[in-house]
User: Which sequence fits this backbone?
């Protein structure tokens, strides 16, 4: 396939490099520290330094209590998201309407090295979410490390992002007003290890918490598949053993996975992703009746229905977006 897109400008590539280095590496902590030191050196910011710790104490639980009101989510409309959208490009596709009088859990697949499709489509307005789904308020769920970084946390929360903890998701879905769509990247960090171009290995078989939450809150389940999400970086699947341990060794394996980028993506030094189109397909909702105390059988039944809908969504659109017609989704265990 010929790529007729104009080469990314230097300013675009610099902007992308800045976003990926700061947002998706350990430099967030360093950046926060540097900003703090600079503020200490400038008397103009001393009143801010006195106020901000009080604000953090007051605002600490906001990521788990529904996040920022959308009227304060000004970062959603920043131009940097348009640059990221046009670079790949990233496209959001609607297959059916979502009723703003209901709440939804959108399961995003796959995670990829970095879930750019989820960030652009649901953490910003660059892909036109508000236009495609009027009345629906998206809340992209993210691991809650971000709230520990001063300044950076404010920018993240100004996109509408919330903590991915169960209590956080439940808080949003139990609100009296409806029209919320919690976006959960279900495969999580473990799915990073499955990432490889043109591969479709999902961590899903044992991930049933989202199905239980849907039953307990009466929220409809919506499968979302991002074609091209795994094609951002050229690297093989992890060759490390699948079972090395728990939290620390999982982190180690993921970090080792990221370090291979500089080897396999020499042209970009593993910092700027390759220009592979990402198309995010939002499927049809699975209606769910609220059950205060769902049984294991009810959870399994809903989970199976969700998996079937996700596979159908994948099979229906795969050929259109460059996947061989015989390719099937592979569902890995945790």
Assistant:
């Amino acid at each position: 396939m010929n790529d007729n897109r104009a080469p990314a400008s230097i300013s675009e590539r610099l902007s992308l490099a800045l976003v990926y280095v700061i947002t998706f590496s350990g430099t967030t902590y360093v950046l926060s520290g540097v900003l703090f030191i600079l503020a200490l050196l400038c008397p103009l910011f001393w009143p801010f330094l006195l106020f901000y710790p009080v604000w953090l104490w007051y605002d600490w639980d906001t990521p788990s209590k529904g996040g920022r009101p959308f009227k304060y989510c000004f970062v959603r409309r920043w131009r940097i998201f348009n640059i990221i959208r046009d670079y790949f490009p990233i496209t959001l596709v609607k297959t059916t309407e979502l009723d703003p009088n209901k709440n939804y859990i959108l399961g995003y697949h796959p995670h990829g090295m970095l879930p750019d499709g989820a960030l652009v489509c649901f953490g910003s307005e660059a892909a036109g979410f508000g236009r495609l789904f009027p009345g629906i308020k998206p809340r992209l769920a993210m691991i809650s490390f971000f709230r520990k970084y001063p300044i950076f946390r404010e920018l993240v929360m100004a996109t509408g992002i919330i903590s991915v903890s169960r209590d956080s998701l439940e808080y949003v879905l139990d609100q009296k007003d409806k029209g919320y769509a919690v976006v959960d990247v279900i495969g999580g960090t473990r799915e990073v290890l499955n990432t490889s171009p043109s591969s479709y290995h999902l961590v899903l078989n044992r991930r049933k918490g989202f199905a239980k939450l849907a039953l307990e809150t009466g929220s409809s389940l919506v499968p979302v598949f991002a074609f091209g999400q795994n094609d951002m970086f050229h690297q093989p699947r992890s060759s490390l053993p699948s079972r090395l341990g728990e939290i620390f060794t999982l982190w180690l394996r993921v970090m080792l996975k990221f370090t291979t980028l500089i080897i396999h993506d020499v042209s970009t030094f593993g910092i700027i992703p390759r220009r592979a189109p990402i198309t995010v397909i939002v499927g049809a909702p699975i209606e769910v009746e609220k059950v205060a105390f769902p049984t294991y059988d009810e959870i399994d039944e809903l989970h199976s229905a969700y998996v079937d809908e996700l596979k159908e969504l994948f099979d229906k659109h795969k050929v259109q977006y460059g996947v061989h017609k015989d390719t099937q989704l592979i569902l890995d265990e945790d």
In short: DSSP finds twelve helices and nine strands in the chain. The two ends are 36 Å apart (CA to CA). The CA atoms of residues 22 and 83 lie 16 Å apart. Residues 296-317 form the longest helix (22 residues).
